[in-house]
Amino acid sequence: MRIFILLLLTTLLVIPVNAQETSVSPTVTPGDTWTALAYRYNLPEETLRVANPQMNRQRQPVIGTTIAIPEGAVSQNGRLLRRNDGDLLAAAVALNTSPWTLALQNGMPSPYRPPLYRPLYLPGGAEPPQDLPSGITRLELSQAPAQPGQALGVRGKLWEEGMVTAVLDGNEMDIFQNGNHFLALTGTGAFYGSGQPELTIRVDDSPLWSQPWQFIDPDDWVYQQITLTGEAAQIDQESIARERERLNAIWQQNSPAPQWQTAYQLPITDYLEITSPFGARRSYNGGPYRSYHEGVDFSAYGGTPVMAPAAGTVVLAEKLFVRGNAVIIDHGLGVYSGFYHMSGIDTTVGEQVQPGQIVGAVGTTGLSTGNHLHWDLLVDGIWVDGQAWLNQGMGCWILEGWGGDCEIGDS
Ligand SMILES: [Zn+2]
After folding, report:
1. Does 377 lie in the same domain as 237?
2. Would you place residue 115 in the very low, low, confident or very high pLDDT band (cuts 50, 70, 90)?
């Protein structure tokens, strides 16, 4: 009897696997277009749109949100091909199948009259069908939903080499390519807010692909009121602007390959506390919260070592007006980290630094009111949250997208 029940249980457990379990409200991933979901669940696109009145039917389903699938619908594996739009014969050759079979599977009377704007569908395989940009075989986002202020990445692989462009909310992302691998990087700034900006990708002159990306503002920002008196209130605005302009010129440069091989680590281990996180809203002398903190502040005793968070090349090592003793490291791929207000500098421009290598010491030089380290991180010329970068393992995520390996960091 016990054996019989066991057998029965085993059988019951096996059934859902064969039937390819139904997911009632899956999270939308890149390539889950209305067309892809219609093929996947064998339902008309209109049925899916009606079941999801929260979605804008003029746009594709929003990446990072959940989508309601009518009860009873079963997920099926398959592939959608847009690469060979209008070229069914080439697709059949590439997939080692008969053009007549392919035509039949796509409801076409003959392989010699292929549809113009419809993807080719091939049932079977190991994955549900994804409607990816033409020419792209794999596409991933660093996070979905995304959070304003954090570094954002898109990584993927191409069928064959080609020029990729990626645009988020109208802004072109930094693009880096390594053979068939590509990476698109950017940030939004901490004031970006919640929304569903359009992510648009294309390879060479292929048709534009686009899908909205869910952004959620955590609304847990720190608010800081700062009172400037005496000398600090008379800060020379022109000097501030000139310094920023000079640094902007550095941050706009892109070294085309990553210089790091490990996970990133904190630039300081012996700190007392984080006195101001990235994105903290700031009001000066009772004014509106019109600016935010562009880095992370660590309070620490003067002289505490400051270390390179990852390998890179030192591109600035000098005393600045606002930032005091400053070091900026170019990590490659448009990723820069900077260390400011230090008491001293232990590196020189051009030096290739290793992760954990000491580049300076905590101090209170420049416009600073006490010993602390201000660490900033830029991607695509935009300040991003360094703590989130570490927590999300962005360093390794990007390296893997580049087609490289990530050695574990030493901390
Ligand atoms: Zn700061």
Report:
1. yes
2. low
